[in-house]
Amino acid sequence: MAEVALELDDIQSGALHERPSPYVGTYLMLRIDDRADGLELVRRLIPLVASGVPASDPDHDAWITVGFTYVGLAALGVPQESLDTFAPEFREGMAARAAQLGDVGPSSPENWEHPLGSAEVHVAIAVLSPNAADLEIVAEQARHAHEELPGITVVWRQDCYQLPTGRTSFGFKDGIGQPAIEGSGRPASNPHERPIKAGEIILGYPDETGELPPMPSPEILGRNGTYVVFRKLHTNVAAYRRYLRERAADRKEEALLGAKMVGRWQSGAPLAVSPDEDAPELGADPHRNNAYMYGDDARGLKCPIGAHSRRANPRDALDGDGSVNVNLHRMVRRGTSYGPELPEGILEDDGADRGILFVFAGAHLKRQFEFVKTQWLNDGIFIGAPNEADPLIGSAAGPTDFTIPQKPIRRRLTDIPPFVTTRGGEYFFAPSLSAMRWLTELA
After folding, report:
1. Quick one: which H or E segment has residue 437?
2. Neighbours of 55 (CB within 10 A)
3. Which residues pair with 49 in a beta bridge?
4. Nearest-CA neighbor of 45 among 133, 141, 137?
5. What are the tens digits of pLDDT across the range 281-294?
6. Which of 164, 166, 231, 435 could cross-link with 431 by S-S, CB 3.0 to 4.6 Å?
7. β pairing state of 355-362 and 336-338
8. How does strand 400-404 pair with strand 152-161?
9. CA torsion sign, 246 to 248 to 249 to 252?
10. pTM over 0.85
């Protein structure tokens, strides 16, 4: 298949644009109570939305990304015959699919933050910037877009920022392992992997099957758009730390057990390259910290087969019989942190809300996000351990086990409690700039 040229000027930047580091940001959810005001909101947002130009563009010190739920598109007056052409998962919404996704118990929709997952969420606006000053300028533009529109109500807001350590609330370097997208102009961080086909992320282009993925109609509505998965995940950092402390002989082993569960050391250094000790220089090097495969580690002696990062992206580990094309399940991740950092060494929960806002972009909700969540993270069948969920963010149904292959005898961590609780989520559609203009012209 010949490489395609993406229409970058028409694609919202969120699917292609790496978030900055450091970053600050704000996520807003809005409800449309009046269709005319909703269309005016879209009209005002169009000049603010950044397109998928290269991240080196100096004009993009801060940018806005906009998405709509199925209910939100209906509130704007999108014809039913067009609404019916969206992916079934998008039409149902995340809350309706919670049980299938493993969002049960404390993570079930009845425990989500209101109004996440409800029919009140119509529009999502994400504003990200490398610094607070630029963020405020763009955030003010976003506020102006919906202010003085009585038919538009802000129903939810969450601020986010990079923690002082530059890591997630669990203490691990974030933002590693993004796939290269054909035609995006973004270089690959792993020279051992070819770029994935553009149609895996952006609608209107051939995907890994060589075909055009199903696309909403009319073409102007679907082309250059992408589906966006939003999830607010509360992290119980104290419980995670206590679990490791109780099972480790010393701090060195504590760090090793944490690395085995994640697949990387906290610095970002991958176990596949540095299995025995942390290598901070490796972890900090974007040209090396993702340049590896798992083909030479079939037994998981370096990186356990059930480690979080290996589950989420098995790379070449499933190529043995040629039956699995991992690229069919790749997606773009744009995670950000929220809430205060739990001070180092604290083992008791302080009651603060902290965690990760996970944002995924892709053209196939079911075989990308939903497949990875249910088949690779929640279930262990594909690694030969049916009862072992992802040790870090697996199913909220209850405790799980985790196997660490080693010689002469493997080690098994048992009764790992859920460290992550889903606080809400939704499926959005991020239309192209052309599609947003089309929306404003709806009769």
Report:
1. helix 433-440
2. 15
3. 64
4. 141
5. 999 999 999 999 99
6. 435
7. antiparallel
8. unpaired
9. negative
10. yes
